[in-house]
Specification:
globular, Beta-carbonic Anhydrase, Chain A
């Protein structure tokens, strides 16, 4: 597969960007990953980068974004933080990806058996982790109100939607790009049990 150039990036629609991620995950599931010369891609991208999408995911070691979507060097931006939560730095990073570097899609990716979500559900408090986990509380409240109980996997999904909501509400740059049809913002959950990405 060729490295993403400015011309290729410009030709990719938001819908196509999401389709490319889906196709990559299917290749990963099928054990049919594309052959790439990563060292060649390092050399080619040294002069510039034109990723077609940005994925916000958890830091969990079982969710290596470029691998599970079968992507190469320079193909996607990867923003990672425990619990795939939104804060000022993550939001600024995503604004750069789409508003400056031209990415066409934002995928907020939660995952099953998430330690951050589980810890938030249990009310864990520890150093700076406390403030981070507090950002999961709206998702917990949403699930509790809807289901009458807190189910970790439901909170994981609600937390993805919460992050999408915060992207739209706290970034006029990204909200305007989405409104104008220049980007799409979607959510999904990665299943650590089998490697499949389910879109929400």
């Amino acid at each position: 597969m060729s490295t993403i150039t400015k011309e290729i990036q410009d030709s990719i629609s938001p819908e196509k960007a999401l389709e490319m991620l889906k196709e990559g995950n299917q290749r990963f599931l099928d054990k049919n990953e594309l052959e790439r010369d990563l060292h060649f891609q390092v050399n080619i991208t040294s002069g510039g980068q034109f990723p077609y999408a940005v994925v916000l995911s958890c830091i969990d070691s079982r969710v290596p974004v470029e691998l599970v979507f079968d992507q190469g060097v320079g193909d996607i931006f990867s923003a990672r933080v425990a619990g795939n939560i939104i804060n000022e730095d993550i939001l600024g990073s995503i604004e750069y990806a789409c508003g400056v570097a031209g990415s066409k899609a934002i995928l907020v990716l939660g995952h099953t058996k998430c330690g951050a979500v589980t810890s938030a559900c249990k009310g864990v408090e520890l150093g700076n982790i406390t403030a981070l986990l507090s950002k999961v509380k709206p998702a917990i409240a949403d699930v509790q109100e809807r289901d009458g109980e807190v189910k970790v996997e439901e909170v994981t999904k609600a937390n993805v939607f919460q992050s999408i909501k915060e992207i739209r509400e706290n970034s006029s740059i990204l909200a305007d790009l989405e409104r104008d049809g220049k980007i799409k913002i979607v959510g999904a959950v990665y299943h650590v049990e089998d490697g499949q990405v389910s879109y929400l």
